[in-house]
Amino acid sequence: MTTLRKRALIKMIGLSAVSLAALTACGKKDEAPAAPAAAPAAQAPAADKLKIGFMYVSPIGDGGWTFQHELARKAIQEKFGDKIETSMVESVPESADAERVMRDMAGQGNKLIFATSFGYQEFVQKVAADLKDVKFEHATGYKMGDNVAIYDSKTFEGAYLAGIVAGGMTKTKTVGVVASVPIPEVVRNINSFVLGAQSVDPSIKAKVVWVNEWFAPPKESEAATSLINGGVDVMYQNTNSPAVLKTAEERGARAFGKDGDMSAFAPKAHLGSAVINWTPYYTKVVEDTLAGKWQGGSYWWGVKEGAMDLVKIADDVPQEIKDKVEKAKAGLKDGSFAVWTGPIKDNTGKEVLPAGQVADEPFLKGINFYVNGIEGSVPGAK
């Protein structure tokens, strides 16, 4: 094929293609343009999780106070699933660090914050005043606010039940308490323990050693040693570690776990553990918050609400003592028994509660004296 013929053929093919395109376009000019493909339906955004922060004064491994809060945190996380998101910070001092941690929690989106130690009180008040959209729950405090509730467990009921066991087990008729910080909560627990012991044997005496810290295992151990050297053979504590119990086992004495089940730390010395269960209260707070029904106020739960119990009573405790414990528990549950029922005298012989009178909450939360039978006086009491 000559070059001229090739060029003619290419030209004809090009013209045919143009004509075909033109005809196709003419045939479609009256048709409606195709509708664009529908965009995928937008999904409704998932509801925001309720973010909850927990602030602890001691390590979660303390086996007691903080450990029980941590168990409850895990329990509510499991119960409410993806409706909530919880986090915690442990070993936060009762100082300006507490304010920093709470502000940081709020900055991370936590709308409900549990501050779980008495010494956080002023910092809770300060931060809550600035962050009105955050709800604060302060354990063992007494200052409330529009967005601040206070809550506590009736640990004095557990102390009383432990005291019954102590009264049935002491051979020296002298029991002891390693105490943390001299505030009404702690003094109330000391007294309740002794009242429990004296319900078995009114002649029982008691000694107290203060360490002035919540969690200080070496000091707690030294205090326990001092009590044993002073003739104490059964000890209670209001501190956050198992050091007292461990020391008791090393020295051939007996003792109790406090706040958590501490039986594994010193099984030979262990007489029982006065255990706090925070889960019922934390469940209530989360349910209320999710439902938009959270409100401030003061909440104080004990044996009746399932928030307090004495568990793992030692096998060698006499059955009649165990029966006495169970009878007291039943009375606390149904309201037929109250630990602080007169007549009760302080250790100077002054009557502080007349016969038949049951202490009200203001009385219980203002106790700053030792009951009859306890040596010494409450630090700082007037």
From TrEMBL:
Q: Which Gene3D superfamilies match?
A: 3.40.50.2300
| Signal peptide (residue range) | 1-21
Species source reads: Comamonas terrae
Q: What is this protein called?
A: BMP family ABC transporter substrate-binding protein
Q: Where, by residue number, does the polypeptide cross the bilayer?
A: none
Q: Does the keyword DNA-binding apply?
A: no
Tell me which PROSITE patterns the record gives.
PROKAR_LIPOPROTEIN (PS51257)
Top-rank taxon, per record: Bacteria
**Domain ABC transporter substrate-binding protein PnrA-like positions:** 50-325
* A Pfam cross-reference name: Bmp
User: Could you tell me which PANTHER family the record lists for this protein?
Assistant: ABC TRANSPORTER SUBSTRATE-BINDING PROTEIN
Tell me which UniProt keywords the record has, alphabetically: Signal
